[in-house]
Amino acid sequence: MQTRARNVAELIARADTLLEALPYIRRYAGTTMVIKYGGHAMTDDALRASFAQDIVLLKYVGINPVIVHGGGPQINRVLDMLGIEPQFVRGMRVTDPQTMDVVEMVLGKITNEIVTLIQRQGGRAVGLSGKDGELIRARKLTVTTEESGRRTKVDIGLVGEVQAINPAVIEALDRADFIPVIAPIGVGEDGKSYNINADLVAGELAAALQAEKLILLTDVEGIRGADGQVLSTIDVEQAQELVRSKVIDGGMIPKVECCLDALRRGTKKTHIVDGRVRHAVLLEIFTDAGVGTEVVLRSDAAAIARRRPAR
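RESULT FIELD:
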C-alpha cells in the first residue's frame, strides 16, 4: 500500500512539473530561441542526449530553436594529432589556411553529430556552415596588442567577425519545421572562409532574428554577484557595474557583452546557463527557478535581489 501511495505521489509531482511549464509553453509558442551549444554538454554522452531531447521538445511545443555550436577543444585535439601547435592572441586562435582547413573539417563533423543526435530523438535537423546561402557574411578581424605602452596591430589570419546575417535561410528552415544547426564559419567578400567566435555568432543571429531568447550553455552555474552567490536575474546596468568592478572577469566578460549587445538590438531575454546540468535548456525556460542567470534589459529591484544558492 505504501508503494502505491509513493508511486501516486511521484506521478502527482510529475504532473505539477508539467503544469509549471504550461504558462511558459503558452507564452513562447511561435517564438525563436537561439542556443549556443558548447562546453561539457558537448562531451558527456548523457548531457548530449538530454540536450537533443530538450531541443526536440522545444520544436514539438511550437518553439523554433536555432543551434550554434563551438568546437575549440576538438579542434585542438586534431591539430595536436597533426603536429600543429595552436597559437592564440588575446584568446583568439591564430588561423592560417592550414588551420582553417582543420577548423572547417572538425566543425563540420560536430555539426553532423549534433544533427544525428537530434534526429535520433525524433527531430528533423539540418546542418549548416555560415557559408551556406551566405548565412554569415564576415569581415577580417585585426587584433591590437599592447606591450610596454606600445599598441601593435597583429594579423591573426582567417579570423573574422560578423558583418551581416541573412535571416531568410533560417526563416525558411523554421517554416519547413527543420531545426538549424550552425557552425560558426563566415564567408568574406574575398570568398575566403573565416573562423568566428561561436558566442558572437549566436548573439548576432539572435539580434537578426529578433529572437525571444539567446541561451549560452557554459561550464559554470551562472553569473555570480559580489557576494559570490549566483544571480538568478540581472539587468544591463547591473551587469555593466559588475564588469567595471571586475566581479565579472575573464572568459565571462565576452559572454556577458554578447548578451548585452543582443538585448540592445531587440532580443527579449538572454541566459547564461549551466550546461553541466541534464535538461538545462528546459529547466531554464520552463521552470520558475531555472539553472543559470537570466540577463534582461531592465528589471525590478526585487528580481535583481534574488540569489540562487551555490550547488
